[in-house]
Amino acid sequence: DVQLVESGGGSVQAGGSLRLSCAVSGAFYSRHYCLAWFRQAPGKEREGVAATWTAASRPGAFATIATSVKGRFTISQDNTKNTVYLQMNSLKPEDTAMYYCTADDPTCTSLSWAPGWDYWGQGTQVTVS
User: Fold this and answer.
1) Is the peptide bond between 106 and the residue preceding it cis, with omega within 30 degrees of 0?
2) What mean pLDDT is predicted for residues 44-67?
């Protein structure tokens, strides 16, 4: 099984930055898997933010960012630390949400389909004022 633990959320003023971290542990079924960040604001559906695909020989070989955050958010992973990050810059009040780390194994489900992802963390709150 796979466990995901998020950290790094908090309150920040508009224009500020935060870096979210997700510690990944456990065993994936495949050596090819996806890690991603979703967010959910009160009263709204869970929204895919960014994803990164890794292969045995090419960690973070592919990354995608949602249009709504492109140019402001960056996803990266450090396989030596089994951690995936979401760097968030130029934060806006509309970025306020609970942010979730998720993993999909062995496929890489679209960011537009949250139910397709296999593993979820508990979330970390980001509030931008």
Assistant:
1) yes
2) 80
Identity at 77, one-letter amino acid code: Q
How far apart are alpha carbons 106 and 118 in whole angstroms?
9
Q: What is the pLDDT of residues 85-115, one digit of tens each?
A: 999 999 999 999 999 999 998 778 888 889 9
Do residues 50 and 75 touch, judged by C-beta distance below 8 A? yes
Closest CA to 97 of 112, 86, 108: 86
CA 17 to chain centre: 15
- Give the number of other Cβ atoms within 10 Å of residue 88's Cβ: 26
Cβ(89)–Cβ(73) under 8 Å? yes
Polymer length in residues for the chain: 129
* First-to-last C-alpha distance (Å) of the chain: 37
Residue 101 · residue 122 · CB < 8 Å = no
- pLDDT over 90 percentage in the chain: 64
Q: Which residue has the tokens 């609970």?
A: 98
